[in-house]
Write a structure and sequence with these properties.
Distance between the termini: 35 Å
Order of helices and strands: EHEEEHEEHEEEHEHEEHHHEHH
Largest sheet: 8 strands, mixed
Strand content: 15-25%
Radius of gyration: 21 Å
Number of domains: 2
Number of strands: 13
CATH superfamily of the largest domain: NAD(P)-binding Rossmann-like Domain
């Protein structure tokens, strides 16, 4: 690092992942960035990346952004112990390092799944009693509990440190390889959308809104605590599919197949172990509404800069490329 460089310094764990890569691209012109990852290959915009056993080799930093962990993987149920080993263990390790450091801010990227797996008609705000289900959500909640058990945090010279637990809804953006890719492939196939009769509401989180929020939280002082992060608007799955169709230049053929018939077919799929089954239907048609009111109030902003549809379109255009 240039000795005359007076920029603030960020430490980002999981720096080579989807969110980490976007953070580096967004912040590298204004911050000096160090990384922690299992891979230490050079990365443009990153001063140095160390392994988890080399934390003591890092210079002083101003803020820590903890992203590293095992992502939600519903297709693999054999990882239960590993979720806790990584999502809880690594969080404890980097948080302990932070508390002993001179850093002033700590951001833990948890998940909305730490609050609930199936909220139904309930809107998830920060007052909800956490009820995670499954190793991913449960491990994220355990990591939260470790952090919360040691509040308020103070650094090595006795100054109060700000600690933020962020629970984003499903994050999407350029470089994302998440659930949206399956719907993208389906729409590109030209097959009609059979779930037009369902009117569920679901929250998403654009990477652009996430970056905007993180920049504000790095530059302003807001109270420590848990904050839910989501776009301002919800989308039904049919609206989502329609936006994808617009992004790929197709006209969506939406069929309003009666709900009772679709549920009957899904029940049959479960009995016959088919890809379209009750669980798949639930994931496509359930409500999952996340409130971002507390966050916007803390940041004193009326709206986030990117609408849900704008964010989805940007993601789909990146798929096209």
């Amino acid at each position: 690092m240039n000795l005359t460089d007076t920029r603030e310094t960020l430490l980002i764990t999981g720096i080579n992942g989807f969110i980490g890569t976007n953070l580096v691209e967004y912040f590298s012109s204004r911050y000096t960035i160090y990384g922690v990852d299992i891979h230490q290959h050079p990365k443009k915009g990153v001063e140095r990346t160390v392994s988890w056993d080399q934390l003591d080799l890092l210079p002083p930093v101003d803020a820590v952004i903890h992203l590293a962990g095992i992502a939600h993987d519903t297709s693999n149920k054999e990882k239960g112990d590993l979720y806790f080993k990584v999502n809880v263990g690594l969080t404890g390790k980097i948080y302990d390092w932070f508390r002993a450091s001179g850093a002033s801010r700590f951001f833990f990227f948890s998940s909305i799944k730490a609050a609930a797996e199936k909220p139904g008609e309930m809107t998830l705000d920060e007052s909800v009693e956490p009820s995670p289900a499954g190793p991913y959500g449960e491990s994220k909640r355990k990591a939260e509990e470790y952090i919360l058990s040691q509040q308020p945090a103070t650094n090595r010279i006795g100054l109060t440190q700000n600690v933020y637990i962020l629970r984003p809804a499903m994050i999407h953006g350029p470089g994302n390889k998440g659930n949206l890719t399956s719907l993208y492939r389906y729409v590109k196939s030209g097959m009609p959308w059979p779930l037009g009769a369902f009117t569920n509401q679901r929250s998403f989180c654009s990477i652009d809104n996430l970056l905007f929020v993180l920049e504000k939280m790095l530059s302003e002082t807001i109270p420590s605590g848990i904050y839910h992060l989501a776009d301002d608007e919800c989308l039904s799955t049919t609206q989502l599919v329609s936006s994808i169709a617009g992004g790929v230049g197709r006209e969506l053929k939406s069929l309003a197949v009666p709900v009772a018939l679709v549920k009957l077919l899904a029940a049959g799929g479960s009995l016959l172990h088919l890809p379209f089954n009750k669980e798949r239907l639930r994931k496509l048609t359930e409500n999952f509404i996340v409130s971002n009111a507390k966050l916007k109030s803390a940041l004193a902003i009326p709206t986030l800069p990117v609408t849900a549809k704008e964010g989805i379109l940007k993601t789909i255009r990146s798929f096209n490329r």
